[in-house]
Amino acid sequence: MGLFAMITKLPMGPYEEILCALAQSGVDFIVGGGVACVLHGVERVTMDVDVAVQMQADNFGKFIATMERLGLKPRVPIAPASLLDPETIKMIVQEKHALVFSFIDPDRPFRHVDIFLRDDLSYATLVDDVEWKELYGTRIRVISRRRLLAIKEAIQPPRTKDLIDIEWLRNNQP
């Protein structure tokens, strides 16, 4: 039995809870980062859920409402709705050197969601390069294995976990 098959038979953990809640709320999003690696079969641990969210007002409103329902709050004192303004995102990336906007659970820090802020990791850029995965009966868009590998290979300097992900993604077929 593969890792993904085992994951879907285990009790729901914090990442699965977050992803299923987003999907069931009708949020258009794409899973990236370490959770995408795991969903593609890489055996690894990750500390957060990385997502590209479609940044239209109604969709982002559903995303924010889901974060609130799950008890996740912005890590920084910036109103999440301000991310709908491209100039605000540009300022956060340029002035703060932020790559993501984080939502955390103050009582359970392992419940952590990062929204990609960079254009090359935006929903619009990634949406045509996804695979659908099923998680606890819920369909979720995940960045394609090929695109995930390309993103990991472009990280400079690569972290140890990226090198491990790259090796696995290159050498193991689904």
Task: Describe this entry's structure for a reader.
With 174 residues, this protein is α+β, with helices and mostly antiparallel strands. Helix content is 42%, strand content 19%. It has 8 helices and 7 strands, in the order H-H-E-H-E-H-E-H-E-E-H-E-E-H-H. The strands form 2 sheets. The protein has a 5-stranded mixed beta sheet. Helix 7 runs antiparallel to helix 8 (160-171). The radius of gyration is 16 Å and the shape is globular.
Give descriptors for this structure.
174 residues; single chain; 5-stranded mixed beta sheet; two-stranded antiparallel sheet; disordered N terminus; alpha+beta
Quick overview of this protein structure:
This protein is α+β, with helices and mostly antiparallel strands and 174 residues long. The protein has one domain (3-169): Beta Polymerase, domain 2.
Give the helices and strands, then pairings.
Elements: H1 3-7, H2 14-24, E1 29-32, H3 33-39, E2 49-53, H4 57-69, E3 73-74, H5 86-96, E4 100-104, E5 112-116, H6 123-126, E6 130-135, E7 138-143, H7 145-154, H8 160-171
Parallel strand pairs: 2-5
Antiparallel strand pairs: 1-2, 3-4, 4-5, 6-7
Helix pairs in contact: 7-8
Reading the helices and strands in chain order gives HHEHEHEHEEHEEHH
How many strands, what sense, and barrel or not for the largest sheet? 5 strands, mixed
How much is the radius of gyration in Å? 16 Å
State the CATH class: Alpha Beta
What's the end-to-end separation, in Å? 12 Å
The fraction of residues in strands falls at 15-25%
* Coarse shape: globular
Supply the CATH architecture.
2-Layer Sandwich
* Low-confidence spans: 1-7
Number of strands: 7
Provide the structure class. alpha+beta
Strands in their spatial order, largest beta sheet: 1-2-5-4-3
- The portion of residues assigned to helices is 40-55%
CATH third-tier fold name: Beta Polymerase, domain 2
